[in-house]
Structures are given as structure tokens and as C-alpha cells.
């Protein structure tokens, strides 16, 4: 709400605006391009607000990556729910994966999160959460090695989409997933 041309003080909302702005910037310029000044400008808050909530750039970067991780996890949860009672789980997953890979925000978020975790092991739990979450959803119906293989396939497809700027065709994803879905049925390990 605006009073006398200024926003009413809401510390939690301001903090969230800062985190959202930082997350958007990470997907646009990467974590190396992040600065308190750029985030303050994007969030339309005073520079001092960013340092008030996030004393170090590492703190701000971690909050932005956590935000991106939650975006990815929300999509994975939606896809898992769609697959639960699907007559054609491979088709549902192929279409869901295609939609994911066609969303530049999600692809950039995913690759920035993964690249950041490679450089900073403290961020590994953020990437592990969604990898393990997806594998956990898939394991009961596919088996462990097939579920792990599907997760690796998705990782590779994500990097390909990031590099080419295009999602692979649904049929290509479907064929790859169909082969992986059958792994434990052919060779349970």
C-alpha cells in the first residue's frame, strides 16, 4: 500500500522482493554478475535494504538459488502428481519434460543452480533435493537404476536445452524415457 508516495513498511515482503529480484538476475547474468546494487535496482529498493537483509553477496546468492530451487521443485511435484494415475506415464513425463525444457526461466534456473553447486559444495543440497526427490517419486514404479537413469537423462536434456535454446522434440524425449523406463524390467540391479 502507498502512503504519501512511499510503500508501507513490510520487512518480509521487502526481503522477498529482494530475493525474487536476485533470482531473476541469476537466471539472466549468472551468479558472477550478481551485485547488491543490481538487485536493489531490480527490486526497486534502496541499496541499504539489500545489505540490511543480506550482509554478504554470498548470503544473497544463496537465497536467490534457494528461491530458484523451490521453483524447480514445484514443477517436479506437479509432474509427479500428473504421472501418479496416468495411463501413459511415459507420455505424461515426456510432455511435462518438454514443457519444462521449453521454459527458459526454468532451464536457466536449473543450469545456474547446478553450475553454482559445482563451484560451491555448500550449495549441493539444493540440487540434490530435486534430483533425489524425482528419483524417490520414480523408484517405486521403475526401480532404482531406471529412476536414477531417468534423472540423469533429464539432467543432460536440460543442459542441451540450455545450450541450444530449444527443448528437444516430445517424441525424442518419449523414446529416451521409454527405453529408460524399461531398464529394471530387463536387468534389475
Automatic annotation (TrEMBL):
<dbReference type="InterPro" id="IPR001647">
    <property type="entry name" value="HTH_TetR"/>
</dbReference>
<dbReference type="GO" id="GO:0003677">
    <property type="term" value="F:DNA binding"/>
</dbReference>
<feature type="domain" description="HTH tetR-type">
    <location>
        <begin position="12"/>
        <end position="72"/>
    </location>
</feature>
<protein>
    <submittedName>
        <fullName>DNA-binding transcriptional regulator YbjK</fullName>
    </submittedName>
</protein>
<keyword id="KW-0238">DNA-binding</keyword>
<feature type="DNA-binding region" description="H-T-H motif">
    <location>
        <begin position="35"/>
        <end position="54"/>
    </location>
</feature>
<dbReference type="InterPro" id="IPR009057">
    <property type="entry name" value="Homeodomain-like_sf"/>
</dbReference>
Amino acid at each position: 500500500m502507498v502512503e504519501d508516495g512511499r510503500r508501507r513498511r513490510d520487512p518480509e515482503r521487502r526481503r522477498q522482493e529482494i530475493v525474487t529480484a536476485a533470482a531473476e538476475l541469476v537466471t539472466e547474468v549468472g551468479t558472477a554478475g550478481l551485485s547488491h546494487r543490481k538487485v536493489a535496482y531490480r527490486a526497486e529498493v534502496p541499496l541499504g535494504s539489500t545489505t540490511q537483509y543480506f550482509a554478504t553477496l554470498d548470503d544473497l546468492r544463496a537465497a536467490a538459488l534457494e528461491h530458484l530451487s523451490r521453483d524447480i521443485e514445484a514443477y517436479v511435484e506437479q509432474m509427479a502428481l500428473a504421472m501418479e494415475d496416468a495411463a501413459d506415464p511415459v507420455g505424461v513425463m515426456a510432455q511435462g519434460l518438454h514443457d519444462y525444457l521449453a521454459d527458459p526461466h526454468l532451464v536457466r534456473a536449473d543450469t545456474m543452480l547446478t553450475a553454482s553447486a559445482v563451484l560451491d559444495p555448500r550449495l549441493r543440497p539444493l540440487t540434490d533435493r530435486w534430483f533425489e526427490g524425482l528419483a524417490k517419486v520414480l523408484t517405486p514404479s521403475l526401480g532404482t537404476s531406471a529412476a536414477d537413469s531417468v534423472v540423469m537423462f533429464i539432467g543432460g536434456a536440460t543442459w542441451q536445452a540450455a545450450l541450444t535454446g530449444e527443448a528437444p522434440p516430445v517424441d525424442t524425449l518419449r523414446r529416451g524415457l521409454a527405453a529408460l523406463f524399461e531398464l529394471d524390467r530387463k536387468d534389475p540391479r
